[in-house]
Specification:
This protein is an alpha/beta fold. It is built from seven helices and 13 strands. The chain has one domain: Class I glutamine amidotransferase (GATase) domain (Rossmann fold). The strands form three sheets. Strands 4-1-5-6-13-12-11-8-9 form a nine-stranded mixed beta sheet, with helices on both faces. Strands 2-3 form a two-stranded antiparallel ribbon. The longest helix is centred in the last third of the chain and has 39 residues.
Amino acid sequence: MPTTNNHRFHRVAAKNKPIIGVTVSEIRAKEDAQRVRHGEPTQTEMTLGLAYMRAIERAGGLPVALPPLRDENVGPLLEQLSGLLLTGGPDIDPACYGAEPHPELGPIDHDVDVFEIELCRQADRRGLPILGICRGAQVLNVAREGSLIQHLPDIAGGTLEHRQSEPGDRTTHVVQVAPDSDLAQTTGGGPVRVNSFHHQSIDRLGGGLRPVAWSEDGVIEAIEDPDGGEQLVFGVQWHAETLTAETEQLALFERLVEAAAQAAARRRADTDESEQEAEDSGAHAV
């Protein structure tokens, strides 16, 4: 197994732990919610695996679940965040990338898709670090005007099972990682063993993104922005949040948290500079 250099990521000081927004892509209708004895009445619910939150916490960040909000609230929400984790979930409405629905398209929620794509775009413009997991990598690609393969069996030929029956903490295949990529630097280089729970994948690449990992059947398994500068932007097709017992998988979240801490520090420095300039200007005016 590839291992991560322990000195590559610096443990974030407790007082400076960055807040990482975590999307909630699955909304459960009131009629599908489970009634709990002596619990509250059933209502429309957000559904999110705790493994995402635990992965961010273990990496040194503070995770906050993000419900779908109206467009006018996306900016104020992002003002409070230092990084963004785009999670897995249902298929994305193909209308979001200008395609007709495939017969094998799963359940979709257009409103959630629109929110997450706008959230990603605004976070991108603000220079926030972004990590996409499974659907989240696809949201990142669509947010940058890319498109998706709607049903992998149509093009992959069935040589590799991309929807495993084994639990999420088990790996079932290997991805080859581009040696010159940020992903290789993060995971320690070399092939990475992954799990697989998707029937869709990236087709046309979004602007500024490049593929950096592939399964043996040629499916794109990871993307990143090589020209992001100080901003970290990358996505993986596997569910790394359930594999954090492995060093190279936890390293993905450590990298996100470290980048978020750096982004928060830059923002604090900019705020301090602006306040000092305002104070100096006021002093001169007196």
